[in-house]
Design goal:
10 strands; 343 residues; single chain; binds fe (iii) ion
Length: 343
């Protein structure tokens, strides 16, 4: 409503006085790797509540490079990513600034935010093992470590070892076991693959359905996206062919990853941008955001979606700080090369 009113008011004013500094700051520019359908509802809710307009550039690739090239002239205030990898990259390149916010600190558990306050997780997901119903019995596989057990030879499917999601998982293995042991594990996992790494996470579950493999690695939200898929109903069959295994429930918990946000170094609307980041961490947006993509809210006490309650429930999460995991991603990539994971 307010946006409409302002537009009308502007139209009636002479150009020279149309923009005052206060009005100019009443917007936030976002570079988003997250898809529009996911974040637009929260942005609309934010504008409705605060009157602050949002402008978004959506892209699958190139936004960090764009930000880098634009330097001080970049219009971007916030970068939104769907994984700790690119979020860590944008911070590592010196393209962000820290945000000290009591609201963010309270709403986001410490493992999901940068100890130096440059990046903040807004939704969480775990990397699950999808296990073939009827071919893998309950409890037969309980940990990521067991994926390297020779009993699974020729029975595991995964996407590239160099994909962001797997780099974080391998990074967490290095963090918990050290590089030498992580390498052995990765070699064992590689030896157990049913086929050369290929396709995305959902393609692995499809392969389980088709009998190509019995175990598949995949992010948790893909289960929701498959089991509710009216557009491609065959994906419901893929989802129905597997049980969900949350690894390492008896020890450190399942490996977690996030989608998140960072404030750019030269954000022209930093104050409004921080307001938006805070808004995204509050109960209303957390519930909306998590529900839209079958993810987990990061904010403790936020209602999880019905689908999550039905199929996943509560589980033990690995609480290692994702900064540690992210710092080991380069090492993880070298290990993947070393063991020829994708060959
Ligand atoms: Fe994904």
């Amino acid at each position: 409503m307010r946006t409409t009113f302002k537009k009308l008011a502007f139209a009636a004013l002479p150009l020279t006085i149309a923009v005052t500094s206060v009005q100019a700051s009443e917007e936030v520019n976002i570079y988003s790797y997250r898809q529009q359908f996911l974040i637009q509802p929260m942005l609309d809710a934010f504008t409705e509540k605060t009157g602050i307009k949002t402008n978004v550039v959506f892209a699958k690739k190139g936004l960090i490079e764009r930000l880098e090239n634009e330097g001080k002239n970049s219009p971007a205030d916030i970068v939104l990513t769907s994984d700790i990898g690119p979020l860590y990259d944008v911070v590592s390149k010196g393209l962000t600034q820290p945000v000290q916010s009591a609201v963010l600190e309270q709403n986001i558990p410490s493992q999901f935010r940068d100890p130096a306050d440059h990046w903040f997780g807004l939704t969480a997901r775990t990397r699950l093992v999808y296990a073939a119903k009827g071919r893998v019995t309950e409890g037969e596989l309980a940990t990521y470590e067991e994926l390297a057990d020779p009993k699974w030879k020729g029975r595991i499917c995964t996407r590239s070892g160099k994909h962001s999601y797997n780099l974080s998982l391998i990074g967490s293995m290095i963090a918990h076991h050290g590089e030498a042991q992580a390498e052995q594990w990765l070699e064992g996992l590689k030896a157990n693959l049913a086929r050369k790494p290929q396709g995305n996470d959902r393609a692995q579950v499809k392969a389980v359905k088709e009998g190509v493999c019995d175990l598949a690695l995949g992010n948790s939200y893909y289960f929701g996206k498959m089991i509710t898929n009216e557009k491609n109903p065959e994906q419901k069959d893929w989802a129905n062919s597997v049980n969900l295994v949350f690894p390492n429930q008896a020890d450190r918990g399942a490996h977690m990853n996030i989608s998140g946000a960072a404030l750019t170094k030269y954000a022209p609307h930093a104050e409004s941008a921080v307001k938006l980041m805070e808004f995204l961490s509050e109960a209303q947006a957390q519930a909306m955001y998590a529900e839209a993509n079958f993810e987990f809210p990061v904010r403790p006490g936020t209602q999880r979606s019905e689908l999550i309650e039905q199929y996943m429930g509560e589980f033990k999460e690995d609480t290692i700080n994702l900064q540690k995991v992210a710092e080991l991603r380069a090492q993880a990539a070298r290990l993947a090369d070393k063991v020829g994971f994708d060959n």
